[in-house]
Amino acid sequence: MKLGVALPMAGAWATPDNQIRVAQRAEALGYHSLWVFQRLLYALQPKCDYPPMPGQPWPKAFERVFDPIVSLAYVAGATKRIRLGTSVLIMPYYTPILLAKQVAGLTELFLEANFSPGAEVGTVLAHLDALASTR
Question: What is the pLDDT of residues 54-98, one digit of tens each?
């Protein structure tokens, strides 16, 4: 079995120092991978409940979430072998060629780091509505 660790991405504990601390400690303890997630917006008046927990509001920690690619690049520079992964990159947020360039750069700059991307089309209507209003 291979175990991974989630980087601190959201809320008060998501700081650059904590990301490095968690990444280096996970690597030292022999964990297989580091994982990040993506949230673009925090809806002030959500149109739906928090999907994993029906009937519950969205976590306040999601008011502030780091960018997943930036976070992985940051910790890759402070680690040696641990695999890097995105649990979800929401594809409509990206221009495909720009995302491909970012991922290629991440893997090229940090040759020892393996990268496991996860992607989806998006399920939160408020996010998709906001994205549509910017195009």
Answer: 888 888 888 889 999 999 999 998 998 898 888 888 877 788 888
| Burial class for 1, CB neighbours closer than 10 Å (0-12, 13-18, 19+) | exposed
pTM (whole model) above 0.90: no
The pair of three-digit structure tokens given for residue 82, joined into one six-digit string: 């641990």
Tokens representing 60? 């306040």
Only one residue has tokens 């280096």, namely 24
Q: What are the residues whose beta carbons fall under 8 Å from the beta carbon of 127, sequence distance 6 or more?
A: 40, 41, 90
Residue 126 contacts residue 47 (beta carbons within 8 Å): yes
Q: Alpha carbon of 84 to those of 14, 41, 51, 57: distances in Å?
A: 17, 23, 25, 30
